[in-house]
Amino acid sequence: MNHFRRILAAVITLASAVLAMATTSAFTRTLPSPDCCTSSNRVADAPVTVITAGGMPGWQITLIALGAALVAAIAAVTLDRALATRRSVSSTTA
Predict the structure, then answer these.
(1) Are 72 and 12 contacting, i.e. CB atoms less than 8 angstroms apart?
(2) What are 54-83's pLDDT values in tens digits?
């Protein structure tokens, strides 16, 4: 049973790490093409468009992460208590 818990903990840790990387905006950006910054491709007075719509505010991401951590902690405690009640208590009395 101890090996099962270790494997389960490793799987949960890896899954949460993958989820954390998937939700990070640094990993979702596309890289520019290699010839994007050469002088022959630049347009002299091109207008700059600032895009401010879209995405998710940081406080919402934080709330989602805290909620997921809380659910995982509750599930872990519940499973641990359920497994503890199944074990037979063996004590020797003198």
Answers:
(1) yes
(2) 777 888 889 999 999 999 999 999 998 888
